[in-house]
Amino acid sequence: MFEARLASTLTLKRIVDALREILNQSTLDCSDTGIQMQAMDNSHVSLVSLCLRKEYFEKYKCNRNISLGLDLKSLTKVLKCANGDDAVTIKAADKADKVELSFESAGKERTADYELRLLNLDQEHLAIPETEYNCVVHMPATEFARICRDMATFSESVVIACSKEGIKFSASGEMGAANIKLSETTKGEVSIQVDEPVALSFAGRYLSTFTRATPLAEKVKIGLAPDVPLLVEYPIEDYGYIRYYLAPKVDDPDG
Fold first, then answer.
1. Which residues form a coiled coil (predicted)?
2. Suppose 224 and one of 99, 135, 189, 236 were both cysteines; which one would form an S-S bond, judging by CB atoms 3.0 to 4.6 Å apart?
3. 111 and 103 in contact (C-beta within 8 Å)?
4. Which CATH architecture has domain 2-117?
5. Using the 8-state DSSP alphabet, how is residue 156 labeled?
6. How do the domains of the chain map onto residue ranges?
7. 135-246: same fold as 2-117?
């Protein structure tokens, strides 16, 4: 039997919103330590990893490991039936073919129960290797979202270059060019750790999609190293995270 309760449906809405632009369907792996999910997007260019430890929930019970295959668009439709400040309880029996979502208003005067059919998804479990990043940057999540939006105006490709002087985002196209550079701040809004300078090119539309997770966190962590995927991590309070990984673009002679 699996049961998890969150005091606010809004957080769950934000998590699903951060996933559904990249994934149509996914499997949540529930265990006695919490919920995890790993999946690649349809084009196999980016990978997303979700972790929610059991301490994040008001109530959490999982007697045995259970996998919940979900259609994220259907889950979004069910979540739209609830108010953001409703409490939500997710339940599934062992070997279940459906998951139950129960919403309860703050004053408990309104309750609503929904059932969502589970999918039997054949998803490979991907081992994400521990990577030592040459550059690690922490910056405000809203600033990163704004930069990704601005870069998209100029080009489909975004070059992210990091050195001891700062982190620079660049894009150039027919319209012109954009360069935005952030230096480390004394107040700690932007922190930059650099072992070796790195400059890599990425598909801007994926970066923009990752910023759907902005409402979940004040800060975003960016990890860069040659020949390995970019890491973009949004912490979920102190109890979890959404991590996006994006392979660098290979040099294209046509631009």
1. none
2. 135
3. yes
4. Box (3.70)
5. S
6. 2-117, 135-246
7. yes
227 burial class (0-12, 13-18, 19+ CB within 10 angstroms)? exposed
Burial class (CB in 10 A: 0-12, 13-18, 19+), 76: middle
**pLDDT at position 126, please?**
67
pLDDT score, position 123: 64
H or E stretch at 31 = strand 25-31
User: d(Cα 26, Cα 55) in Å, to the nearest integer?
Assistant: 23
Q: Where do the DSSP E strands lie in 72-143?
A: 87-92, 98-104, 111-117, 135-140
Instruction: Write the pLDDT tens digit of every residue in 74-101.
Output: 999 999 999 889 999 999 998 889 999 9
Q: Which CATH number fits domain 135-246: 3.40.50.1970, 1.20.1250.10, 3.70.10.10, 3.40.50.1000?
A: 3.70.10.10
Amino acid at residue number 64: R
How much is the average pLDDT of 49-68? 95
CA-to-CA distance for 137 and 62, rounded, in angstroms? 36
Tokens of 194: 């650099």
Mean pLDDT, the chain, rounded, equals 92
